[in-house]
Specification:
- There is one protein chain.
- By secondary structure, this protein is an all-alpha fold.
- It is built from 10 helices and no strands.
Length: 183
């Protein structure tokens, strides 16, 4: 079960890890408090069928029913999510890299880093959401954008954060910034 206020867990079961990746993909650009219950309900439906979340989605894809399931849970971004969910089916969630995740349709640098940072210990990434970007503008670079950049710009800003912020645990830092700046 996803709890947006307690998101870091380095000891997730397979089911929990799959659920967390689905949450990470679906929450991009949306409110965590709105997406978490929807993902929790979707994953509960999978469990009721005796499947892991990704097994359930694979079955829905095979049956041609994935779009209907996404619409049932009002997850939005339907075309993107259908392709994202197809692409993640073959990932090893315990060993995939940022590049592996970003190769999946609809998963950008922020989502990839968010998933890895909060599911594996000792990761060093900057999840450049609007909250961290506000922190960056206030403490590191006033010219940082308000919205998550992509490509080289993302990597340049991430490097500034990693070079200028000294923390022991980047997941804790990410959550602290989120808690400080979230409305």
């Amino acid at each position: 079960m996803i709890d947006p206020k307690n998101i870091t867990n380095y000891n997730r079961t397979r089911v929990e890890l799959e659920e967390f990746l689905l949450f990470a993909i679906c929450v991009a650009g949306k409110s965590s408090s709105q997406i978490a219950p929807k993902i929790n309900a979707l994953c509960a439906e999978a469990k009721d069928c005796g499947d892991t979340p990704l097994e359930y989605l694979a079955w829905m894809i095979h049956q041609g029913e994935l779009l209907g399931v996404l619409q049932q849970y009002k997850l939005g971004k339907y075309n993107t999510l259908v392709q994202s969910f197809k692409d993640i089916l073959n990932l090893n969630l315990r060993s995939c890299t940022v590049d592996d995740l970003e190769a999946c349709h609809g998963i950008g640098p922020k989502t990839a880093r968010f998933f890895l940072l909060h599911s594996r210990p000792n990761q060093k990434f900057a999840v450049l959401d609007t909250h961290l970007l506000k922190y960056v503008r206030e403490h590191i670079d006033p010219s940082a954008p308000k919205q998550t950049p992509s490509g080289k710009r993302y990597k340049d800003i991430e490097k500034k954060v990693l070079d200028n912020v000294q923390v022991d645990n980047w997941a804790d830092f990410d959550l602290g910034v989120w808690a400080s700046y979230a409305k």
